[in-house]
Write a structure and sequence with these properties.
Layout: H1 3-17, H2 32-44, H3 48-58, H4 60-87, H5 92-189
């Protein structure tokens, strides 16, 4: 079991043991310092993958920019090569054809680099979002479970209090009836 799962279980146990807020079926009284400490520890233990994915997403533009720069360098090199070939008069026609082919290949390579960088950045972002959603789903389940447990405990408490109140009322009524009977008997005797 990971430390994050232990912290989540501690939060769940803490919430289960919190006192219910008076006259409320769904609210509890929480010690803010203890909850802040547990949440702070949870935050500190978040997996490094999330941080890594965030950095990769933030660096997406840098990756794409780098890919474009590499593409421009390839295109510039191809253009320089083309100009050199053109300057050589005897092979000018062949140089022109080779230059165009080189430019097309360079553009295709540059586009492939840009596409691959964008795809990888999107996949990393998607993975980070999915992981975060999964963690939030787990936290939601824990909180819903805690709310249901506390609601059941509160309803049980209210039911017990109502039963006790009914017993007290019945006992008082019996005492009153018995007291009135004894007073009536005593008045009759006098």
């Amino acid at each position: 079991m990971s430390r994050i799962e232990q912290i989540v279980m501690e939060i769940e146990e803490y919430i289960d043991n919190c006192k219910p807020y008076p006259f409320s079926g769904s609210k509890i009284i929480v010690n803010k310092d203890e909850m802040d400490e547990l949440l702070g520890e949870l935050r500190r233990k978040m997996p490094q993958e999330i941080t890594k994915y965030k950095k990769l997403i933030e660096n997406k533009e840098a990756i794409i920019s780098d890919a474009k720069e590499q593409a421009e360098n390839i295109i510039n090199a191809a253009q320089v090569h083309t100009e050199e070939l053109i300057n050589e008069h005897e092979i000018m026609q062949r140089a022109y054809e080779q230059a165009n082919q080189t430019i097309q290949e360079a553009q295709a390579q540059a586009q492939a680099i840009v596409d691959r960088a964008a795809q990888e950045a999107n996949e990393m972002r998607s993975s980070a979002v999915n992981y975060t959603d999964q963690m939030l789903e787990n936290l939601q389940i824990i909180i819903q479970h805690s709310v249901e447990n506390n609601r059941n405990q509160y309803n049980s408490l209210m039911s017990n209090l109502e039963d006790t109140l009914n017993v007290v009322i019945n006992n008082r009524n019996e005492l009153r009836s018995q007291n009135e009977y004894e007073q009536t008997a005593q008045e009759d005797a006098e």
